[in-house]
Design brief:
Blueprint lengths: L9 E5 L4 H13 L5 E5 L3 H9 L11 E4 L3 E4 H12 L14 H13 L1 H5 L8 H4 L2 E2 L1
Parallel strand pairs: 1-2, 2-5
Antiparallel strand pairs: 1-3, 3-4
Length: 137
């Protein structure tokens, strides 16, 4: 399978079965005023291909990935910080978290990831039609 990608977009790959993760996808969607992001769950064909091509575990979904085709991919806390930087405005202030060593910020990320099901509260918004066009299956 060969999925077409847009080299001008940033791809956010997340756990599609996690309410907490879906909340943050909705959060980014609502603030993506420059239409810079596309989204795919790690469980989707796109997500599975992404993981497979990089030799990453295809059954573990507790890591957020930010990918720019022909560029880079980031994981965990680095991905979160870079998303804030891309969104710009006041969200750029979150980049100050980059002063912490990655091992430390990733430990915090892992703690949140381990408890993400509890943090979701079981609620999940339904994306609008415009938002659904940004989600790759």
């Amino acid at each position: 399978m060969n999925i077409q990608t847009d080299p001008g977009k940033y791809y956010v790959l997340y756990d599609g079965e996690c309410g907490f993760c879906n909340y943050w996808v909705q959060w980014i969607l609502a603030r993506d005023r420059k239409d810079q992001f596309l989204f795919a769950s790690l469980q989707s064909d796109f997500g599975q291909q992404f993981l497979s091509e990089r030799g990453l575990n295809q059954k573990q979904f507790n890591t957020l990935y930010l990918w720019k085709p022909q560029g880079f991919y980031m994981v965990k806390s680095k991905a979160v910080i870079h998303i804030a930087k891309i969104l710009g405005g006041t969200y750029r202030l979150a980049t100050i978290l980059g002063i912490f060593p990655t091992f430390f910020s990733d430990k915090i990320y892992d703690l949140v990831a381990a408890n993400r099901q509890k943090l979701s509260g079981g609620t999940c918004e339904i994306p609008s039609e415009a938002q659904r066009r940004k989600i790759i299956s």
